[in-house]
Amino acid sequence: MSSQRLPTPGRFVRVDGVPLHVVTEGAGPLCVLSGGLGMAWFDWDAVAALLAPYRTVVRFDRPGLGLSAQAPAPPTLAAEADRIARLLDALGHDGPATIVGHSLAGFHAEAFARLHPDRCAGVVLVDGSIEEDPRPLLPRAVRTAWAGGVAGVLSAAGMPRALGPAARRLVGRASTVGSHPPHPWERVGYRTSRVARACVLENATYPYQAAELAALRRARPLPPVPVTVLAAYDGSETAGRLRWLERQRALAAELGGRFAVAAPAGHLVMADVPESVARAVLDLTDTGRDATPLR
């Protein structure tokens, strides 16, 4: 299916000179959904549908991903946290927001809370990335230059167009326990050099973003907002899986937050059990009141 046959949801908002694709729906307290490495707005479809009756839900594509344009520079942790704040400014949302970060975007959600404490109402980390002692081995400029070169070679060889959507589907299948049909926009976005480059650069800058967060934790306290760490559990009893749950539990304790398990779920929790993500968001601000019923 071509992009000409698909109506583009949402709109484009220019943030720091970069046109970002954003979808806003619902009404009520503000909630921002940000996906993991290489993910797009549509990965949150099921969660957004559950939250929209109770929250104003904002989901957006980081530069190069989904339908957003490329940024002139590789991502950094502070830039991604600031991007969320500036996107909300551009949308006219100046009140506090609950930030939901999946995987790599868990770094961004926590950084947003530390760098913009007055604008954060709470944080939900959905199977968020964890690096207890990040120590990048190469200078950032060297690694990002190498990654940019790799992306250029792949694009020149036509690899994104030939294999991009298939690679995306393979990652999805490996990261879920359920069976989920491909989204119509997968083929449109993941066959482009733009998205391929963004994925490569996010992967290349991951260790530096982890190190930035470790330094930020020492420099900026977490504001007194509710935090939930939602860990994926597929039901297996392997040492690696159980160790991952303990690391997620330890992160919740470090942040003074609540630990919860989403099961049965792979890493793409929002696909396998979207109701667990929605419940974590609603419970975050409904503590002490009757639970909001999910429709």
From TrEMBL:
Domain spans labelled AB hydrolase-1: 36-280
User: Which PANTHER family would you find in this protein's record?
Assistant: HYDROLASE, PUTATIVE (AFU_ORTHOLOGUE AFUA_2G14860)-RELATED, MONOACYLGLYCEROL LIPASE
For molecular function, the Gene Ontology terms on record are:
hydrolase activity
| Gene3D superfamilies per the UniProt record, alphabetical | alpha/beta hydrolase
Look up and give the organism this protein is from.
Streptomyces endophytica
Descriptive protein name: Alpha/beta hydrolase
Please provide the record's keywords in A-Z order: Hydrolase
